[in-house]
Amino acid sequence: MTLSGQLQDAGVQLELLTGPLTGIYDPNGMGAMFFAVLAVAAQLDRNYIREKTLEGQQAAAAKGNHGGRPKVIDDDMLTFAVALKNKGVPVPDIAKKLTIKTGKNAGRHPSVASLYRALAEAEDDTMADDAQVIGPRRPVRARITEPGSGTDVELMERLTAQVLGGDTVLDDLARQAQDRSDDVVAQLLAQARDRDA
Question: Structural domain boundaries of the chain?
């Protein structure tokens, strides 16, 4: 209807070439009514086609057919590819070991790009499955003991001697480190105390 209004405003005339109503219709007067009736009929026809298409897609989906191109890498191939990748086999070598089973490329090897895409989707799926488990994650312990890193042995000894000045403060901090294992400074002080002992 919007399109018919725009065409009428632009002065476009409707000409029917065949059928019982052949002729040219002016967008003003009786032609405007005829133009609107045809526009409504076209819109109804379009809505009917859309409804039937959606019904057909739903019926096909109920049968397991979702349309689109068939997958080049099926679930068995993907499982094999993931196992090989976990063993450290390069992806181009994995692609050469796989063979497409169906479609116009049956008997060929999948492309490296298709394999990378399938592996990424599989990884995303496993990440989504893992994300459903709710709970605290264990922190990764980092050992930084290079000279100049801020946690080398000499620096810790100097800080302990200058700031703490006594064993009682160091013992209190070590006890706190045992109670709160997520405090990095307390852990470092506990390590220094253990070294001194």
Answer: 2-62, 75-131, 153-196
